[in-house]
Amino acid sequence: MQTAGNLLILMSDEQAPWALGCLGSAPVETPNLDRLAAEGTLFTQAYTNSPICVSARAVLQTGRFVHQIGCWDSAQPYHGAPKGWAHQLRESGAEVASVGKLHFRASTDDNGFDPELLPLHVKDGQGWLPGLLRRPLGDFPAAAELAADVGPGTSPYHDYDRAVAKRAASWLENEAPSERPWVLFVSFVSPHYPLVAPPSFYQRYADVALPEPTAPSATDHPALARLLGFFDYDRYFTPEARRQARIAYYGLVSFLDSLVGEVTGALKASGQAEQTSLLFLSDHGEMLGNQGIWAKSVMFEDSLGVPMILKGPGLPQGKRVATPVSLVDVAPTTLRAVLGHTDDSGPGMALQEIAGAKDNQNRPLFAEYHDGGSDTGIFAYRRGRWKLVHYEGERPQLFDLASDPQELRDLGTSDRHADIIADLQQGLSAIVDPGRADRAAFADQAALIESLGGRAAVEAKTKDLGFNYSPPPPAE
User: pTM for the complete prediction?
Assistant: First the structure.
Protein backbone atom coordinates (compact mmCIF):
# COMPACT_ATOMS: atom_id res chain seq x y z
CA MET A 1 0.00 0.00 0.00
CA GLN A 2 1.24 3.43 -0.91
CA THR A 3 2.50 5.66 1.91
CA ALA A 4 1.66 9.31 2.40
CA GLY A 5 3.58 11.95 0.48
CA ASN A 6 3.21 14.75 -2.05
CA LEU A 7 1.07 14.80 -5.18
CA LEU A 8 1.55 16.44 -8.56
CA ILE A 9 -1.54 16.42 -10.80
CA LEU A 10 -1.11 17.22 -14.48
CA MET A 11 -4.28 17.80 -16.46
CA SER A 12 -4.92 18.34 -20.14
CA ASP A 13 -8.17 19.53 -21.70
CA GLU A 14 -10.11 17.62 -24.35
CA GLN A 15 -7.57 14.85 -24.84
CA ALA A 16 -9.05 11.81 -26.57
CA PRO A 17 -8.49 8.41 -24.94
CA TRP A 18 -6.37 7.18 -27.85
CA ALA A 19 -4.04 10.21 -27.81
CA LEU A 20 -1.06 8.54 -26.13
CA GLY A 21 1.79 7.18 -28.20
CA CYS A 22 2.28 4.22 -25.87
CA LEU A 23 -1.16 2.87 -26.81
CA GLY A 24 0.00 2.35 -30.38
CA SER A 25 -3.44 3.04 -31.82
CA ALA A 26 -2.51 6.32 -33.54
CA PRO A 27 0.71 7.88 -34.86
CA VAL A 28 0.90 10.46 -32.07
CA GLU A 29 4.20 11.31 -30.37
CA THR A 30 4.02 11.66 -26.57
CA PRO A 31 7.43 10.57 -25.24
CA ASN A 32 7.03 12.22 -21.83
CA LEU A 33 3.59 10.75 -21.19
CA ASP A 34 4.81 7.39 -22.49
CA ARG A 35 7.62 7.54 -19.94
CA LEU A 36 5.13 8.20 -17.15
CA ALA A 37 3.10 5.21 -18.28
CA ALA A 38 6.22 3.02 -18.32
CA GLU A 39 7.19 4.18 -14.82
CA GLY A 40 3.65 4.00 -13.43
CA THR A 41 0.22 2.50 -14.07
CA LEU A 42 -1.85 3.22 -17.16
CA PHE A 43 -5.64 2.95 -16.84
CA THR A 44 -6.86 1.94 -20.27
CA GLN A 45 -10.60 2.32 -19.58
CA ALA A 46 -10.88 5.81 -18.07
CA TYR A 47 -13.95 8.04 -18.42
CA THR A 48 -15.20 11.49 -17.71
CA ASN A 49 -18.47 11.68 -15.77
CA SER A 50 -19.73 14.53 -17.95
CA PRO A 51 -18.42 15.30 -21.45
CA ILE A 52 -18.17 19.07 -20.99
CA CYS A 53 -15.45 21.14 -19.31
CA VAL A 54 -17.29 22.96 -16.52
CA SER A 55 -19.33 20.04 -15.24
CA ALA A 56 -16.43 17.60 -15.51
CA ARG A 57 -14.15 19.84 -13.48
CA ALA A 58 -16.77 20.23 -10.77
CA VAL A 59 -16.97 16.43 -10.56
CA LEU A 60 -13.19 16.21 -10.39
CA GLN A 61 -13.01 18.73 -7.57
CA THR A 62 -15.74 17.24 -5.41
CA GLY A 63 -15.68 13.51 -6.15
CA ARG A 64 -19.45 13.71 -6.70
CA PHE A 65 -21.59 13.22 -9.80
CA VAL A 66 -23.14 16.21 -11.56
CA HIS A 67 -26.66 15.42 -10.34
CA GLN A 68 -25.33 15.36 -6.76
CA ILE A 69 -23.79 18.84 -6.89
CA GLY A 70 -25.98 20.73 -9.38
CA CYS A 71 -23.16 21.97 -11.64
CA TRP A 72 -25.35 20.98 -14.58
CA ASP A 73 -23.88 23.02 -17.39
CA SER A 74 -21.34 25.57 -18.58
CA ALA A 75 -23.23 28.41 -16.86
CA GLN A 76 -23.35 26.75 -13.42
CA PRO A 77 -19.69 26.26 -12.50
CA TYR A 78 -18.17 25.04 -9.27
CA HIS A 79 -18.10 27.83 -6.68
CA GLY A 80 -16.37 26.24 -3.70
CA ALA A 81 -19.36 24.20 -2.51
CA PRO A 82 -19.67 21.44 -1.68
CA LYS A 83 -16.16 21.24 -0.32
CA GLY A 84 -13.86 18.89 -2.21
CA TRP A 85 -10.62 17.04 -1.81
CA ALA A 86 -8.53 20.22 -2.01
CA HIS A 87 -10.33 21.66 1.02
CA GLN A 88 -9.92 18.41 2.90
CA LEU A 89 -6.20 18.14 2.21
CA ARG A 90 -5.61 21.80 3.02
CA GLU A 91 -7.43 21.38 6.33
CA SER A 92 -5.20 18.37 7.09
CA GLY A 93 -2.16 20.65 6.97
CA ALA A 94 -0.98 20.06 3.39
CA GLU A 95 -0.18 22.94 1.07
CA VAL A 96 -2.56 22.77 -1.89
CA ALA A 97 -1.84 25.04 -4.86
CA SER A 98 -2.98 25.24 -8.46
CA VAL A 99 -1.49 26.61 -11.66
CA GLY A 100 -3.58 27.02 -14.79
CA LYS A 101 -7.09 26.30 -15.96
CA LEU A 102 -9.70 25.58 -13.30
CA HIS A 103 -12.93 26.68 -15.05
CA PHE A 104 -14.69 27.40 -11.77
CA ARG A 105 -16.75 30.54 -11.09
CA ALA A 106 -14.01 32.79 -9.73
CA SER A 107 -10.93 32.96 -7.52
CA THR A 108 -12.91 35.01 -5.01
CA ASP A 109 -14.61 31.73 -4.05
CA ASP A 110 -12.75 29.37 -1.74
CA ASN A 111 -12.18 26.54 -4.21
CA GLY A 112 -9.71 24.74 -1.95
CA PHE A 113 -6.49 25.91 -3.60
CA ASP A 114 -4.27 28.45 -1.91
CA PRO A 115 -2.83 29.99 -3.99
CA GLU A 116 -4.48 29.83 -7.40
CA LEU A 117 -1.71 30.81 -9.82
CA LEU A 118 -2.60 31.97 -13.36
CA PRO A 119 -6.18 30.74 -12.90
CA LEU A 120 -8.47 30.51 -15.90
CA HIS A 121 -12.12 30.58 -14.83
CA VAL A 122 -15.39 30.86 -16.76
CA LYS A 123 -15.88 34.16 -18.53
CA ASP A 124 -17.16 36.95 -16.27
CA GLY A 125 -18.06 34.42 -13.58
CA GLN A 126 -21.11 33.42 -15.64
CA GLY A 127 -19.80 30.97 -18.20
CA TRP A 128 -21.53 29.99 -21.44
CA LEU A 129 -25.12 31.18 -21.24
CA PRO A 130 -26.42 29.71 -24.55
CA GLY A 131 -26.29 26.28 -22.92
CA LEU A 132 -29.16 27.29 -20.65
CA LEU A 133 -31.58 27.62 -23.58
CA ARG A 134 -32.60 23.99 -23.95
CA ARG A 135 -36.41 24.05 -24.32
CA PRO A 136 -36.80 25.13 -26.99
CA LEU A 137 -33.23 24.83 -28.20
CA GLY A 138 -31.58 28.09 -29.10
CA ASP A 139 -29.30 28.71 -32.06
CA PHE A 140 -25.53 28.42 -32.16
CA PRO A 141 -24.33 30.21 -35.32
CA ALA A 142 -20.85 30.50 -33.79
CA ALA A 143 -20.38 26.78 -34.56
CA ALA A 144 -19.01 27.93 -37.92
CA GLU A 145 -15.94 29.36 -36.18
CA LEU A 146 -14.45 25.95 -35.36
CA ALA A 147 -13.77 25.08 -39.01
CA ALA A 148 -12.62 28.63 -39.75
CA ASP A 149 -9.71 28.51 -37.30
CA VAL A 150 -7.61 25.42 -38.01
CA GLY A 151 -4.09 24.53 -39.10
CA PRO A 152 -0.62 25.82 -38.18
CA GLY A 153 -0.40 29.12 -36.33
CA THR A 154 -0.55 30.78 -32.95
CA SER A 155 -3.23 30.96 -30.31
CA PRO A 156 -3.37 32.82 -26.98
CA TYR A 157 -3.74 29.39 -25.40
CA HIS A 158 -0.25 28.41 -26.56
CA ASP A 159 1.34 31.30 -24.67
CA TYR A 160 -0.89 30.59 -21.69
CA ASP A 161 0.10 26.92 -21.53
CA ARG A 162 3.77 27.82 -21.79
CA ALA A 163 3.32 30.26 -18.91
CA VAL A 164 1.54 27.57 -16.87
CA ALA A 165 4.40 25.13 -17.39
CA LYS A 166 6.99 27.76 -16.49
CA ARG A 167 5.14 28.83 -13.35
CA ALA A 168 4.58 25.24 -12.24
CA ALA A 169 8.25 24.43 -12.75
CA SER A 170 9.24 27.46 -10.69
CA TRP A 171 6.88 26.45 -7.88
CA LEU A 172 8.29 22.94 -7.77
CA GLU A 173 11.89 24.09 -7.75
CA ASN A 174 11.57 27.10 -5.46
CA GLU A 175 8.32 27.05 -3.47
CA ALA A 176 7.33 23.45 -2.79
CA PRO A 177 7.60 22.92 0.97
CA SER A 178 9.85 20.18 2.27
CA GLU A 179 8.55 20.12 5.84
CA ARG A 180 4.91 19.23 5.10
CA PRO A 181 3.00 17.45 2.32
CA TRP A 182 1.92 19.38 -0.73
CA VAL A 183 -0.33 19.07 -3.77
CA LEU A 184 0.22 21.00 -6.99
CA PHE A 185 -2.58 20.89 -9.55
CA VAL A 186 -1.23 21.91 -12.98
CA SER A 187 -3.88 22.34 -15.66
CA PHE A 188 -3.27 23.07 -19.34
CA VAL A 189 -5.73 24.07 -22.07
CA SER A 190 -4.13 22.00 -24.85
CA PRO A 191 -5.23 20.13 -26.92
CA HIS A 192 -8.59 21.97 -26.60
CA TYR A 193 -9.74 23.88 -29.67
CA PRO A 194 -9.06 26.16 -31.53
CA LEU A 195 -7.45 23.43 -33.61
CA VAL A 196 -4.41 25.55 -34.33
CA ALA A 197 -1.02 24.08 -33.47
CA PRO A 198 2.38 25.76 -33.12
CA PRO A 199 3.95 25.39 -36.58
CA SER A 200 6.83 23.16 -35.48
CA PHE A 201 4.40 20.70 -33.90
CA TYR A 202 1.97 20.90 -36.80
CA GLN A 203 4.75 20.01 -39.24
CA ARG A 204 5.47 16.79 -37.38
CA TYR A 205 2.22 15.39 -38.75
CA ALA A 206 1.77 17.31 -42.00
CA ASP A 207 2.96 14.36 -44.10
CA VAL A 208 1.85 11.54 -41.81
CA ALA A 209 -0.94 9.21 -42.89
CA LEU A 210 -3.41 9.89 -40.08
CA PRO A 211 -6.46 7.67 -39.56
CA GLU A 212 -9.54 8.82 -41.45
CA PRO A 213 -12.57 9.81 -39.37
CA THR A 214 -15.36 7.27 -39.16
CA ALA A 215 -18.48 8.10 -41.15
CA PRO A 216 -21.76 8.98 -39.43
CA SER A 217 -23.49 5.72 -38.62
CA ALA A 218 -25.18 5.76 -35.19
CA THR A 219 -26.29 9.39 -35.10
CA ASP A 220 -29.91 9.14 -36.23
CA HIS A 221 -31.37 8.93 -32.73
CA PRO A 222 -33.87 11.82 -32.54
CA ALA A 223 -32.44 13.49 -29.42
CA LEU A 224 -28.86 13.03 -30.61
CA ALA A 225 -29.79 14.37 -34.05
CA ARG A 226 -31.21 17.50 -32.42
CA LEU A 227 -28.03 17.95 -30.37
CA LEU A 228 -25.89 17.57 -33.49
CA GLY A 229 -28.14 20.00 -35.32
CA PHE A 230 -27.23 22.55 -32.64
CA PHE A 231 -23.50 21.75 -32.67
CA ASP A 232 -23.42 21.46 -36.48
CA TYR A 233 -19.66 21.92 -36.74
CA ASP A 234 -19.01 19.41 -39.47
CA ARG A 235 -21.09 21.05 -42.18
CA TYR A 236 -18.71 24.02 -42.20
CA PHE A 237 -15.63 21.89 -42.87
CA THR A 238 -14.12 21.49 -46.32
CA PRO A 239 -12.03 18.34 -46.87
CA GLU A 240 -8.86 20.43 -46.55
CA ALA A 241 -10.00 22.15 -43.36
CA ARG A 242 -10.92 18.76 -41.92
CA ARG A 243 -7.44 17.46 -42.72
CA GLN A 244 -5.73 20.50 -41.23
CA ALA A 245 -7.84 20.34 -38.08
CA ARG A 246 -6.90 16.71 -37.46
CA ILE A 247 -3.21 17.40 -38.08
CA ALA A 248 -3.37 20.36 -35.68
CA TYR A 249 -4.95 18.23 -32.96
CA TYR A 250 -2.10 15.73 -33.15
CA GLY A 251 0.32 18.65 -33.01
CA LEU A 252 -1.41 20.08 -29.96
CA VAL A 253 -1.13 16.74 -28.16
CA SER A 254 2.62 16.69 -28.81
CA PHE A 255 2.87 20.34 -27.73
CA LEU A 256 1.14 19.40 -24.49
CA ASP A 257 3.52 16.49 -24.02
CA SER A 258 6.51 18.82 -24.28
CA LEU A 259 5.08 20.95 -21.46
CA VAL A 260 4.49 17.86 -19.35
CA GLY A 261 8.18 17.08 -19.80
CA GLU A 262 9.10 20.56 -18.62
CA VAL A 263 7.10 20.17 -15.40
CA THR A 264 8.19 16.61 -14.63
CA GLY A 265 11.79 17.68 -15.23
CA ALA A 266 11.35 20.40 -12.61
CA LEU A 267 9.97 17.83 -10.17
CA LYS A 268 13.10 15.74 -10.60
CA ALA A 269 15.28 18.81 -10.14
CA SER A 270 13.45 19.66 -6.92
CA GLY A 271 14.76 16.55 -5.17
CA GLN A 272 11.25 15.53 -4.08
CA ALA A 273 10.33 13.15 -6.90
CA GLU A 274 10.85 10.00 -4.83
CA GLN A 275 8.20 10.99 -2.28
CA THR A 276 5.78 12.46 -4.82
CA SER A 277 2.95 10.70 -6.63
CA LEU A 278 2.06 11.96 -10.11
CA LEU A 279 -1.39 11.74 -11.70
CA PHE A 280 -2.04 12.64 -15.34
CA LEU A 281 -5.53 12.86 -16.80
CA SER A 282 -7.89 14.93 -18.94
CA ASP A 283 -11.38 16.31 -18.30
CA HIS A 284 -13.06 14.72 -21.34
CA GLY A 285 -12.22 13.57 -24.86
CA GLU A 286 -12.57 14.89 -28.41
CA MET A 287 -14.52 13.37 -31.32
CA LEU A 288 -12.27 14.99 -33.96
CA GLY A 289 -14.69 14.40 -36.82
CA ASN A 290 -15.52 10.78 -36.03
CA GLN A 291 -19.18 10.06 -36.82
CA GLY A 292 -19.21 13.56 -38.29
CA ILE A 293 -18.91 15.02 -34.76
CA TRP A 294 -16.40 17.51 -33.38
CA ALA A 295 -15.56 18.49 -29.79
CA LYS A 296 -17.44 16.62 -27.03
CA SER A 297 -20.96 16.71 -25.49
CA VAL A 298 -21.91 13.23 -26.78
CA MET A 299 -21.74 9.77 -25.23
CA PHE A 300 -19.46 8.11 -27.79
CA GLU A 301 -16.18 6.71 -26.50
CA ASP A 302 -13.95 9.38 -28.05
CA SER A 303 -15.90 12.02 -26.11
CA LEU A 304 -16.27 10.11 -22.82
CA GLY A 305 -12.84 8.49 -22.72
CA VAL A 306 -9.74 10.15 -21.25
CA PRO A 307 -6.12 9.17 -20.69
CA MET A 308 -5.22 8.45 -17.07
CA ILE A 309 -1.83 7.55 -15.59
CA LEU A 310 -0.77 7.26 -11.95
CA LYS A 311 2.83 6.98 -10.83
CA GLY A 312 4.11 6.90 -7.29
CA PRO A 313 5.74 5.06 -4.40
CA GLY A 314 4.46 1.50 -4.10
CA LEU A 315 2.55 1.56 -7.38
CA PRO A 316 3.11 -1.01 -10.14
CA GLN A 317 5.42 0.13 -12.93
CA GLY A 318 4.53 -0.50 -16.55
CA LYS A 319 1.19 -2.02 -15.60
CA ARG A 320 -1.95 -1.58 -17.69
CA VAL A 321 -5.19 -1.73 -15.74
CA ALA A 322 -8.41 -2.57 -17.58
CA THR A 323 -10.72 -1.92 -14.63
CA PRO A 324 -12.93 1.01 -15.61
CA VAL A 325 -12.18 4.25 -13.73
CA SER A 326 -13.51 7.81 -13.92
CA LEU A 327 -13.08 11.33 -12.59
CA VAL A 328 -14.92 10.58 -9.34
CA ASP A 329 -12.02 8.28 -8.47
CA VAL A 330 -9.64 11.24 -8.29
CA ALA A 331 -10.87 12.53 -4.90
CA PRO A 332 -10.11 9.32 -2.96
CA THR A 333 -6.87 8.98 -4.94
CA THR A 334 -5.64 12.36 -3.71
CA LEU A 335 -6.44 11.47 -0.10
CA ARG A 336 -4.65 8.14 -0.41
CA ALA A 337 -1.58 9.77 -1.97
CA VAL A 338 -1.20 12.58 0.58
CA LEU A 339 -2.71 11.20 3.79
CA GLY A 340 -2.11 7.48 3.27
CA HIS A 341 -5.80 6.71 3.71
CA THR A 342 -9.15 7.63 2.22
CA ASP A 343 -12.86 7.41 2.97
CA ASP A 344 -15.91 5.94 1.28
CA SER A 345 -18.13 9.02 1.43
CA GLY A 346 -18.34 9.40 -2.35
CA PRO A 347 -18.97 7.10 -5.32
CA GLY A 348 -15.28 6.82 -6.27
CA MET A 349 -12.48 4.47 -5.32
CA ALA A 350 -8.75 5.23 -4.94
CA LEU A 351 -6.80 4.41 -8.09
CA GLN A 352 -4.04 2.96 -5.92
CA GLU A 353 -6.42 0.27 -4.70
CA ILE A 354 -7.68 -0.43 -8.20
CA ALA A 355 -4.11 -0.70 -9.51
CA GLY A 356 -3.21 -3.23 -6.83
CA ALA A 357 -6.20 -5.49 -7.44
CA LYS A 358 -7.18 -7.86 -10.23
CA ASP A 359 -8.93 -6.30 -13.18
CA ASN A 360 -12.69 -6.02 -12.87
CA GLN A 361 -13.96 -5.07 -16.29
CA ASN A 362 -17.56 -5.16 -15.03
CA ARG A 363 -17.10 -2.16 -12.77
CA PRO A 364 -19.81 0.28 -13.92
CA LEU A 365 -19.07 3.64 -15.52
CA PHE A 366 -21.53 6.52 -15.50
CA ALA A 367 -21.78 9.89 -17.24
CA GLU A 368 -24.47 12.54 -17.73
CA TYR A 369 -25.03 15.65 -19.84
CA HIS A 370 -27.47 18.53 -19.27
CA ASP A 371 -25.86 21.32 -21.29
CA GLY A 372 -26.21 23.11 -24.62
CA GLY A 373 -27.87 21.32 -27.50
CA SER A 374 -29.67 18.80 -25.30
CA ASP A 375 -33.42 19.23 -24.91
CA THR A 376 -33.49 16.25 -22.57
CA GLY A 377 -31.10 14.77 -20.03
CA ILE A 378 -28.61 12.28 -21.49
CA PHE A 379 -27.08 9.51 -19.36
CA ALA A 380 -24.51 6.82 -20.18
CA TYR A 381 -24.10 3.61 -18.23
CA ARG A 382 -21.38 1.15 -19.20
CA ARG A 383 -20.76 -2.27 -17.70
CA GLY A 384 -18.37 -4.67 -19.37
CA ARG A 385 -18.86 -4.84 -23.12
CA TRP A 386 -22.23 -3.05 -23.07
CA LYS A 387 -22.97 0.66 -23.02
CA LEU A 388 -26.46 2.08 -22.62
CA VAL A 389 -27.23 5.69 -23.55
CA HIS A 390 -30.45 6.83 -21.88
CA TYR A 391 -32.27 9.86 -23.27
CA GLU A 392 -34.94 10.83 -20.77
CA GLY A 393 -38.33 10.44 -22.44
CA GLU A 394 -36.90 8.86 -25.59
CA ARG A 395 -35.71 5.44 -26.73
CA PRO A 396 -32.25 4.30 -25.59
CA GLN A 397 -29.15 3.49 -27.56
CA LEU A 398 -27.11 0.35 -26.94
CA PHE A 399 -23.57 -0.44 -28.09
CA ASP A 400 -21.55 -3.64 -27.91
CA LEU A 401 -18.05 -2.28 -27.43
CA ALA A 402 -16.46 -5.73 -27.77
CA SER A 403 -17.69 -6.40 -31.29
CA ASP A 404 -18.21 -2.76 -32.32
CA PRO A 405 -15.56 -0.58 -30.62
CA GLN A 406 -16.20 2.31 -33.03
CA GLU A 407 -19.90 2.33 -32.09
CA LEU A 408 -21.21 2.12 -35.64
CA ARG A 409 -24.20 -0.11 -34.80
CA ASP A 410 -26.92 1.13 -32.46
CA LEU A 411 -28.68 -1.92 -30.98
CA GLY A 412 -31.15 0.11 -28.95
CA THR A 413 -34.15 -0.91 -31.07
CA SER A 414 -33.22 -4.59 -31.24
CA ASP A 415 -35.74 -6.93 -29.62
CA ARG A 416 -32.94 -9.48 -29.17
CA HIS A 417 -31.23 -7.10 -26.74
CA ALA A 418 -34.27 -6.12 -24.67
CA ASP A 419 -33.10 -8.06 -21.60
CA ILE A 420 -29.64 -6.46 -21.76
CA ILE A 421 -31.20 -3.00 -22.02
CA ALA A 422 -33.48 -3.69 -19.06
CA ASP A 423 -30.56 -4.93 -16.97
CA LEU A 424 -28.48 -1.87 -17.80
CA GLN A 425 -31.41 0.43 -17.07
CA GLN A 426 -31.63 -1.15 -13.64
CA GLY A 427 -27.91 -0.52 -13.09
CA LEU A 428 -28.33 3.09 -14.18
CA SER A 429 -31.25 3.53 -11.77
CA ALA A 430 -29.04 2.36 -8.90
CA ILE A 431 -26.87 5.44 -9.51
CA VAL A 432 -29.44 8.05 -10.53
CA ASP A 433 -33.13 8.53 -11.09
CA PRO A 434 -32.86 9.97 -14.63
CA GLY A 435 -36.26 11.63 -14.57
CA ARG A 436 -35.66 13.28 -11.24
CA ALA A 437 -32.21 14.52 -12.29
CA ASP A 438 -33.60 15.81 -15.58
CA ARG A 439 -36.35 17.75 -13.80
CA ALA A 440 -33.87 19.17 -11.28
CA ALA A 441 -31.53 20.35 -14.05
CA PHE A 442 -34.30 22.12 -15.95
CA ALA A 443 -35.65 23.68 -12.75
CA ASP A 444 -32.24 25.07 -11.78
CA GLN A 445 -31.66 26.34 -15.30
CA ALA A 446 -35.08 28.00 -15.39
CA ALA A 447 -34.33 29.75 -12.09
CA LEU A 448 -30.99 30.99 -13.43
CA ILE A 449 -32.58 32.22 -16.65
CA GLU A 450 -35.16 34.10 -14.59
CA SER A 451 -32.45 35.67 -12.42
CA LEU A 452 -30.77 36.91 -15.61
CA GLY A 453 -33.95 38.65 -16.73
CA GLY A 454 -35.72 35.85 -18.59
CA ARG A 455 -35.16 33.98 -21.83
CA ALA A 456 -35.32 37.10 -24.01
CA ALA A 457 -32.63 38.75 -21.90
CA VAL A 458 -30.38 35.69 -22.14
CA GLU A 459 -30.92 35.55 -25.90
CA ALA A 460 -29.98 39.22 -26.14
CA LYS A 461 -26.84 38.65 -24.04
CA THR A 462 -25.75 35.81 -26.32
CA LYS A 463 -26.89 37.16 -29.71
CA ASP A 464 -23.45 38.40 -30.73
CA LEU A 465 -21.47 36.02 -28.56
CA GLY A 466 -18.57 34.43 -30.37
CA PHE A 467 -17.36 30.87 -30.05
CA ASN A 468 -17.01 29.40 -26.59
CA TYR A 469 -13.39 30.24 -25.78
CA SER A 470 -12.71 31.16 -22.18
CA PRO A 471 -10.06 33.88 -22.46
CA PRO A 472 -6.79 33.18 -20.67
CA PRO A 473 -5.70 35.56 -17.90
CA PRO A 474 -2.87 38.02 -18.48
CA ALA A 475 0.60 36.67 -17.82
CA GLU A 476 2.13 37.42 -14.43
Answer: 0.97
